[in-house]
Specification:
heterodimer; A: 764 residues; alpha/beta; Rossmann fold; seven-stranded mixed sheet; seven-stranded parallel sheet; 26 helices; 37% helix; globular; B: 372 residues; Nucleotidyltransferase, domain 5; 2 domains; 16 helices; 44% helix; elongated; binds zinc ion
Chain lengths: 764, 372
């Protein structure tokens, strides 16, 4: 009854039907069973039989490939049984070889803990001493030695692995018999974190090589446009890919609804209000519904609105709606997960904390409130809908945002083949050199093996580390001679190590810590800081001791930093030119200076203050468009027009770039200038925030034609008159979107689209 | 037309001064000790006593030996090892004669420790004694405990101190009075006192390995000194050579620090034998006994505190251990041996203190012998 009737309500009844702009139906599909040439080891066959599990074709393909000794990457959809597909052959090996070991790596401690439950269950079913164990920061010291001595299957995360490699001799048994490295949710290892993880894996592989172990890699990941390239960058091996095409799991009918609050014009209603309304509708129709919100605050807000709606209508289910997010205590989260699984909770609003692995069963309907930033996330979240072969519903509520609205108008792109590239850059000089220090501290490092494991850039980096006295040449190779231990200063989620600023409440209580750059823009004197549900006002920022002092104070305004960005081009490394429009890519030095802040009450700016803070300067990579003088000169006459056009084009370009390059909008910065001293012309920069760059703009350079064309189309086709948040306005613009000229922005983008259609035949 | 300039996007040249970058990060993470040098009136030669910052102390000790060579200040020889020669400094102390307790008394006490047998708790022991079972030898006839008692008695009675040590160690742990009793079963010359100096706790180099042993009523001290990190394998090899024939280790916190660090360093260089050699020896880690004996009296049971409060010894001119890493770095930077001499002297004080605490500690200080 329920899912179909909910769909009818949405498509046929007011007010819903006016917002429904597209319905995509994915038909139900029968299961395709697979066959193994040889049955599994008897205890594993029994295990499956007792659970009534029949293997599907993608699972048997994976088992066959792993049995044959191949590295394997599984990218079948969520809930298709990927975990079982690799657990069976891994355990078959552990049964056959009583010394063999396996390492399972997860992005979070919670996921490792979750998977341990499954593996402990498997361990009870088979007659072999495997003793699966979680080994992470929470593992009591007293249990660690025993795990190292006895366990044959260790679940951990990369933070822990990074720390543990320096103690490899304690793991000699485990490493020297390592048969498998299993990396689950591999797609999360991209960008800065992924580049660090790739180098941790190279360090591991180098140590394994020394004890003559060469494990098979087994990866599970969401669908990516560059699965093979990505796996190779991450692990150094080319896996056999078992993807969607091989998927043999049964699937119920799924309706995917685009529900666009902008459909009746800008500002008619808000996506949060509509999400709450849809959640209420789902629960009222008896459909268990999970809404994904893009932030913690929105998760709380939407849950509260849905409850308020219910209470106003005296609906009995008001209490069956709850928010869920990271930051809750583990016990709270377990309780909520349980209540969702057994149906006591009918409606939940979650952050992406529920996107990965955590077992909550499947639901009748899922609402995506806003585009979660990447298609990978969108698919993972949508994959939470669909219980077995029953029909399910996914509702996407796009925001008034360039990326959301671009996709909302292009269902074919949304449902088409994957177009996102997950990028890893092992050559970022800061990331690479940090891991070279770690590697040299784990085992003396000779130049040849450095090149083998860490690539051609390693040599130059080693020269510099040696010249500075951090490494020393010895007959055994380069030896780490600094202190403290290298792994203590190399952080996996940063390119380097910025000073950390402590936020002190009442001069003693540490409220939180933040990195230096963030502190300058969010914890400057006078800033309003949100923490929990409370507001704090910053009274001072101590620039020598890195301390921000705050006082709790209830205020009805907030503050926005005003940042001045300067870019200096260091080296143009590649360029393309067409009829005077030039696209370049290379090294730049970015200087960001917080020069003041605005105080806002509501949408109104009530005050503007100047600040005198030191600039932050870093070197990174950028792409930049330079416009010909014939284009600029006439528009420069009416000064604001050229600026406004460049500014609008800049916003829209940055907004759409994550469509090709898997990254967060915050990973990129931008600057447009009517006349840049280094280029001598009107220039739009899109640069990376990570020091040294992590390949985002490099890929952007390659995909620039597609990016420019899409951005042009987006702005041109936006129904607004003078620009709006769906096209050229940016909510994070520190100039309040002034100046702005949508018409000139369209001209600018049209010009950029001429940049050679002949480049790059693989452009999407 | 389309113009191509620049090179292959993947080509090199992006390394922006990473040496300076990491040097700065490492210095931030491991600064000179910020606090004033503690302890009141040691270091008498420094004008203004201890009321000075680490950097001043460093400048002072550097100036004291400016331009001197190590072999002008110490009797330096080279010890040959499979890993190359190792700089070695030898000295003898006459004021720490061997005193390891009476072996007969120790054997008597162990023989009466019925609790050494698995399953025999305080209650059983009392009941057995009341019924006339006074020694392990008596217990060997017991229907329930006899087999295990025979094994334990065999180890204790055989005059093999190694076997006695391990029986007690497994049953009673690292700080027990009975374990301390087993020290008396060893010949004084069989002990190797060990104390190392490193650049930190994990993943960093050992730069000095000091050992001491009793020979002819003297305490002979041998210090293997790394003139650079490149000497570390030779240090480890020299220690492994030196340990041949020794039957027991004595350290202060060596179970948690010195021995695992040495094992890690040897493993780092792929010296598999050296990595294992020390771990197999009976090991008396005095920090455990000292805590049990004097925790209530002293509060903190650091070696220096014990020396000062219980032995009345104040080290002249000694530096806190926290200064070792920055001092060694300073020595590495300009080759001035001043800071290194303070590390060498500090280590020698540690070794002498180790032997003094060893002789001062009696089983009586460790209280009664409940097991487990
Ligand atoms: Zn618009
Ligand atoms: Zn802007």
């Amino acid at each position: 009854m329920s899912v179909e009737s909910l769909l009818d309500t949405l498509t046929q009844r007011a007010p819903y039907r006016d917002f429904v702009t597209h319905v995509e139906e994915r038909p139900a599909r029968a299961a395709r069973d697979g066959r193994l040439a040889e049955p599994l080891a008897p205890p594993l066959e029994d295990y499956l039989a007792r659970r009534g599990v029949t293997l599907r074709v993608h699972q048997t393909e994976a088992i066959t490939a792993i049995r044959a000794g191949h590295h394997v990457l599984l990218t079948t959809p969520p809930a298709s049984g990927k975990t079982l597909a690799f657990n069976l052959p891994v355990w078959e090996r552990l049964l056959a070889d009583p010394a063999a070991t396996a390492l399972y790596l997860y992005p979070t401690k919670a996921l490792a803990q979750d998977q341990w439950t499954t593996l402990a269950d498997l361990a009870r079913a088979v007659p072999a001493a495997v003793a699966p164990a979680v080994y992470d920061g929470d593992t009591p010291t007293g249990r660690r030695a025993r795990i190292r001595a006895e366990s044959r299957l260790v679940l951990t995360n990369f933070y822990m692995l990074h720390q543990t490699l320096a103690w490899a001799h304690q793991w000699e048994r485990f490493w020297s018999h390592l048969a498998f490295v299993v990396i689950d949710e591999a797609h999360v290892y991209r960008g800065v974190f992924g580049s660090n993880v790739a180098l941790v894996l190279r360090r591991l592989e180098r140590l394994l090589d020394a004890v003559h172990a060469s494990p098979q890699f087994v990866l599970a990941s969401a669908t990516l446009a560059n699965a093979d390239e990505f796996s190779h960058q991450l692990t150094g091996v080319h896996p056999v890919v078992i993807d969607e095409a091989a998927d043999g799991s049964a699937r119920g009918r799924q309706h995917f609804v685009f529900y666009n609050p902008e459909a009746l014009g800008p500002g008619v209603t808000s996506p949060h209000q509509e999400t709450a309304r849809l959640l209420a509708a789902g629960v009222e129709h008896g459909v268990q519904t999970l809404a994904f919100a893009v932030s913690r605050q929105l998760a709380e807000l939407v849950a509260r609105q849905a409850r308020d709606t219910a209470q106003a209508q005296r609906a009995p289910w008001a209490e069956a709606v709850a928010p869920y997010r990271a930051g809750y205590l583990p016990a709270e989260r377990r309780a909520l997960e349980g209540a969702l699984r057994d149906g006591r909770i009918r409606g939940m609003v979650s952050t992406n904390a529920l996107e990965l692995g955590v077992d909550i069963g499947s639901l009748g309907a899922v609402i995506l409130s806003g585009f979660p930033g990447t298609m990978v996330s969108a698919r993972q979240q949508a994959g939470r809908a669909g219980r077995g072969v029953e029909a399910s519903l996914v509702i996407w509520v796009p925001f008034a945002d360039p990326l959301d609205q671009y996709l909302a108008r292009r269902p074919a792109l949304f449902f088409g083949r994957p177009h996102e590239h997950a990028l890893i850059d092992r050559d970022n000089p800061y990331i690479l050199s940090g891991h070279l220090l770690c590697a040299a501290a784990e085992r003396p490092l000779d130049r040849e093996s450095a090149a083998r494991w860490f690539g051609p850039e390693a040599d130059t980096a080693l020269d510099q580390l040696q010249a500075r006295g951090l490494l020393r040449e010895t007959p055994r190779g380069l030896v780490y001679q600094a202190r403290p231990a290298a792994h203590q200063v190399v952080a996996l989620d940063a390119t380097g190590l910025q000073p950390t600023v402590k936020v002190l409440r009442d001069d003693e209580f540490v409220l939180e810590t933040m990195d230096w750059t963030r502190a300058l823009s969010e914890a400057h004197p006078g800033a309003v800081l949100l923490h929990g549900a409370e507001t704090y006002v910053v009274s001072s920022l101590d620039l020598t001791h890195y301390v921000a002092a705050v006082k709790k104070q209830r205020v009805d305004y907030w503050t926005d930093p005003m940042t001045k960005v300067d870019i200096h081009i260091l080296d143009e490394r590649a360029a393309r030119e067409h009829e005077g429009v030039r696209l370049s890519w290379g090294d730049v030095e970015v200087t960001e200076r917080v020069v003041g802040f605005k105080t806002r009450r509501g949408d109104e700016v009530v005050a503007q203050d100047a600040l005198d803070l030191p600039p932050v300067t870093y070197r990174t990579r950028s792409l930049w468009f330079t416009l010909p003088e014939e284009f600029s000169r006439p528009r420069r006459l009416e000064h604001a027009n050229l600026f406004g056009g460049l500014h609008g084009a800049e916003h829209a370009l940055v907004g759409l770039m994550p469509l090709w390059v898997l990254c967060d909008r915050r990973d990129l910065g931008a600057l447009s200038v009517g006349h840049h001293p280094d280029t001598g012309a009107a220039t739009i920069f899109v640069h990376e925030h990570a020091e040294g760059g992590i390949g985002l703009t490099e890929r952007g350079f390659e995909r620039a034609a597609a990016l420019a064309a899409a951005t042009h189309e987006l702005v041109r086709d936006c129904p607004c008159q003078v620009g709006c948040p769906s096209c050229v306005y940016s909510p994070t613009c520190s100039n309040d979107n002034v100046p702005m000229d949508k018409g000139v922005a369209i001209d600018v983008l049209a010009l950029l689209t001429q940049l050679s259609a002949e480049e790059d035949p693989s452009a999407d | 037309m389309t113009a191509e300039t620049g090179g292959d996007p993947a080509s090199g040249g992006r390394i922006f001064g990473v040496g300076d970058y990491w040097a700065a990060r490492l210095t931030e993470a491991a600064p000179l000790p910020a606090a004033d040098v503690p302890s009141a009136d040691a270091f008498p030669a420094s004008p203004g006593g201890w009321d000075r910052r680490a950097a001043d102390v460093l400048a002072l000790v550097t100036a004291r030996a400016r331009g001197r060579r190590l072999d002008q200040l110490y009797p330096v020889t080279d010890t040959a090892t499979p890993e190359g020669p190792c700089r070695t400094i030898r000295s003898s102390l006459a004021d720490v004669p061997p005193a390891t307790g009476d072996p007969h008394e120790a054997r008597r006490e162990l023989a009466g420790a019925l609790e050494l047998v698995w399953g025999v708790g305080p209650w059983h022991a009392a009941a057995l004694r009341a019924a006339g079972t006074r020694t392990l030898a008596d217990l060997t006839h017991h229907p329930r405990f006899g087999v295990e008692a025979s094994r334990v008695w065999g180890a204790v009675a055989a005059g093999n101190p190694d076997a006695a040590f391990w029986v007690v160690r497994h049953r009673c742990g690292a700080s027990h009075r009975l374990l301390w009793c087993t020290r008396a079963l060893f010949d004084p010359s069989a002990f190797l006192f060990v104390d190392i100096e490193t650049l930190g706790f994990s993943g960093v180099a050992a730069i000095l390995i000091g050992v001491a042993e009793w020979r002819d009523h003297m305490l002979d001290v041998t210090q293997y000194v790394a003139e650079s990190v490149a000497d570390e394998p030779a240090l480890l090899a020299a220690l492994a050579q030196h340990a041949v024939g020794k039957q027991a280790l004595v350290t202060f916190n060596g179970l948690a620090f010195d021995v695992p660090v040495l094992a890690a360093r040897a493993a780092y260089y792929g010296m598999r034998e050296a990595a294992r050699s020390l771990g197999a020896l009976p090991h008396f880690d005095l920090v455990h006994f000292a805590r049990r004996a004097w925790r209530h009296r002293l509060g903190d049971c650091q070696a220096v505190t014990i020396e000062r409060e219980l032995l009345g010894i104040v080290r002249p001119d000694d530096l806190p251990g926290a200064y070792v890493p920055p001092f060694y770095e300073a020595y590495q930077q300009d080759g001035e041996v001043g800071p290194l001499t303070y590390i060498i002297d500090h280590n020698r004080w540690d070794l002498a203190g180790l032997a003094r605490i060893f002789t001062h500690l009696t089983p009586g200080a460790l209280g009664s012998c409940d097991v487990g």
